[in-house]
Structure formats: structure tokens, C-alpha cells
Design goal:
CATH class of the largest domain: Alpha Beta
Structural class: alpha/beta
CATH topology of the largest domain: TIM Barrel
Shape: elongated
Radius of gyration: 21 Å
Strand order of the largest sheet: 3-4-5-6-9-10-11-12-13-14
CATH architecture of the largest domain: Alpha-Beta Barrel
Strand content: 15-25%
Largest sheet: 10 strands, mixed
Order of helices and strands: EHHHEEEEEEEHEHEHEHHEHEHEH
Distance between the termini: 50 Å
CATH superfamily of the largest domain: Aldolase class I
Helix content: 25-40%
Number of strands: 14
Number of helices: 11
Length: 372
């Protein structure tokens, strides 16, 4: 992918009249052009420069007259972040820490896998969920991300790709609970999916959630063929509430019902995400309980061996244990996949790089004793 780098717009210099182009649908930008007596094709030209040619500033748009470029720069900004840190793994995984004008930071990751290139992006600054095994929620939720900030993460990851292996998939599995920032996430997803935007097919976009049943039902009726992943991580309510305190008011039965509704409405199978924690949720009895859940809904299971976070006390299971767990599920008819571990030599797990950069500590964070 060619990249045309004009002078990037700086969010810190913007006025209240400025708008963020990456979070704006083409139709809205076309209306702006009409207000300034510009033909509709000018809007398409600008979006072609930004979303196809990779322009970071209006000065790079050489087929636009200078007065028009000046007008656009007076009202719009394209990129609002700076890349505060970059880490690259020996397996090709690249993690970026983006810093916004207010000092807040977000993580996004390029995950290469044969011909596929996936952007894993965040939906919030911090996270309100507080999973006891995850670095994302240490320090809690700082603020919501705007649609433009969510799209910008995907664009930053796309810059890391090349013409031979372009960005192919987008997953909202980074920091935050996507369905707790519903409006911004859906607006961003529509731009990622739009032909005039990143043009990523809906079936190559995945929204992950710890489980908000009402929002899952709402998502099912949006008319989008996106994938839904539910972060289950435990096969019974008692253990799940210990691992995910935010889930105390949402039972697994509630999630099963919402998952059924999602499939009935969209025809799309739900993925159950299940992080394997050594000695906590990876025993054969847990596999048997998980099988019973899977038999009650159309789903597949994605097993993830834990990527350890310092000071949180959880351990990564051996590959043999993960294989045994997966085979037990398969023997009972469950469609299961063991996710390939990525970025183990860098801070690839959610929230690790942000935590290290901000010097967020676990001091004062209560880690509950897990019933085994």
C-alpha cells in the first residue's frame, strides 16, 4: 500500500470547528462539501486519498487546488494520534501504543497469520470490566473512544501492512468493552466496513464482549453480518463471577439466550472465547461443563492459552494441557480452535504496554482467591 505523507493534522492545534474525518461517513462529508459549493466527486476524491492512498494530510492531495486544501485543513483533521511506542515480536506481531491529544493512550496490534493480516483494536481507554487476569482494567475506565479514534487504530495498523499482505480482518478485542461504548463502536464499524472507508467485509469484522445481553440483541438487529465473540472464560457462574466481577449481574444462562437470539436473527454462529488459566479453569470437569453450554447454542469455541501479566498471579498452562482440553471438547462434538499464541516476547497481552508506559501498578488492586 502506497503512503502519501503530507503534514499530518495535529489534534492539539485543532479548533472547536474542526471535525475528525476518519470518524465521518462519506455522506456526512459530502454534505459538508455541498455546504461549501463543492461537487460530490470532491468528497469521493478526498476519501480516495485518505482510505486508499494513505494520505495523512491534505497537502498530499495534489489533484486538489490549494485553496480547497486550505479550506479542508481549516475544518478537518485526519490523524489525531502520535505513535508513543512500537514493539515488534520475532513472530511478526507489532503492537503500537497511540497517544491522543489529552494524553490518554490506546493499544492496537497487527497480527500476521499466513495470508491474513488482522488489526486488533481498542474501544475504550482502560476498561470497566476488571477481569482479574487482565491488565486492561487495572486503573479502571478512563474514557470512551470516539468513532474516529477507533477507526484511526485500524488505519495505523494498516500502515504496517504491505501490498502483498493488506489488512484483511479487524477485531475489537483490545482494551475496553465494545458494547459499553455501543454508539462509537457501531459508527466505527460501519466506516471500517464501508466501500468508501477501509472496505473490510463485515464477516471479517469481530466484536468481542464480556456479555451485555441487551446490547447483543441490539447488535443482532443492526443489519450487519459481523461476527460476535463472547468472552466466557469460565463454564459456570460461580467461577465466572470470580474471574470477571463485572459479570455478577449477568448469568451464563442470560448469555446463552442472547447468543441464541443473535444466531436466529443473523444466521451467524457465536464464538465463545475461553482463556485457559493453569489450574483454574482448564480441568476436564471444566471441559465437560463447557460442552453442556455449547450444546444449548450454535457456537464454536476459541481456546487461548493465557499470556501472563506480572503481579496478577495467574499462570499459562502447558501446551499439552490445552491440547487435552481441546480434544475433550472435540470428542463431545464441540467445534473448537486453539488460538496460536502471538507476541510472547513483547507486551502483547491487552493492556500490558499501556500499563508499563503509564507505570500503572497493581498496588491496592484486590486479586480474589479463586475456587479451584
Amino acid at each position: 500500500m502506497s503512503k502519501h505523507r503530507g503534514q499530518p493534522s495535529r489534534a492539539s492545534e485543532r479548533t472547536s470547528e474542526w471535525r475528525y474525518l476518519l470518524g465521518t461517513p462519506l455522506e456526512t462529508f459530502t454534505a459538508f462539501c455541498a455546504e461549501h459549493d463543492l461537487p460530490a466527486y470532491r468528497a469521493r476524491q478526498v476519501y480516495e486519498w485518505v482510505f486508499r492512498k494513505g494520505a495523512e494530510g491534505f497537502e498530499a492531495m495534489t489533484n486538489l487546488a490549494k485553496p480547497l486544501r486550505t479550506l479542508l485543513a481549516e475544518h478537518w483533521t485526519i490523524y489525531a494520534s502520535t505513535i508513543a511506542q512500537r514493539q515488534e515480536s520475532t513472530d511478526g506481531t507489532i503492537k503500537l501504543l497511540l497517544q491522543w491529544a489529552d494524553g490518554a493512550t490506546s493499544e492496537c496490534v497487527l497480527i500476521p497469520d499466513e495470508k491474513r493480516r488482522t488489526a486488533c483494536i481498542s474501544s475504550q481507554v482502560g476498561c470497566p470490566v476488571g477481569c482479574t487476569f487482565c491488565a486492561s482494567g487495572i486503573g479502571g475506565l478512563q474514557r470512551q473512544l470516539a468513532p474516529s479514534e477507533i477507526v484511526e487504530q485500524a488505519m495505523r495498523v494498516r500502515q504496517l501492512c504491505d501490498d502483498a499482505h493488506p489488512l484483511s480482518n479487524v477485531v475489537l478485542m483490545g482494551l475496553g468493552e465494545p458494547l459499553a461504548n455501543y454508539g462509537s463502536v457501531l459508527a466505527a464499524v460501519r466506516i471500517v466496513n464501508a466501500e468508501a472507508g477501509l472496505n473490510i467485509g463485515a464477516r471479517k469484522i469481530t466484536i468481542s464482549t464480556v456479555g451485555l445481553p441487551s446490547q447483543i440483541r441490539r447488535l443482532a438487529r443492526e443489519g450487519l453480518q459481523v461476527n460476535l465473540a463472547i468472552s466466557l472464560h469460565a463454564p459456570n457462574d460461580a467461577l465466572r463471577k470470580q474471574l470477571i466481577p463485572w459479570a455478577k449481574n449477568v448469568s451464563i444462562e442470560d448469555l446463552v439466550a442472547a447468543g441464541r437470539d443473535f444466531f436466529d436473527t443473523t444466521g451467524r454462529e457465536v464464538t465463545l472465547e475461553y482463556i485457559l488459566l493453569a489450574g483454574v479453569n482448564d480441568q476436564l470437569d471444566h471441559a465437560h461443563q463447557l460442552t453442556k453450554i455449547c450444546r444449548r447454542m450454535r457456537c464454536n469455541v476459541n481456546l487461548i492459552r493465557y499470556n501472563p501479566v506480572a503481579d496478577l498471579g495467574y499462570q499459562r498452562p502447558e501446551s499439552f494441557a490445552a491440547h487435552t482440553f481441546a480434544e475433550e471438547l472435540r470428542s463431545r462434538g464441540v467445534n473448537v480452535h486453539v488460538r496460536k499464541s502471538r507476541g510472547l516476547d513483547i507486551d502483547a497481552a491487552c493492556g500490558q504496554l499501556r500499563r508499563k508506559s503509564a507505570d500503572v501498578s497493581t498496588k491496592g488492586v484486590s486479586i480474589p482467591r479463586i475456587a479451584r
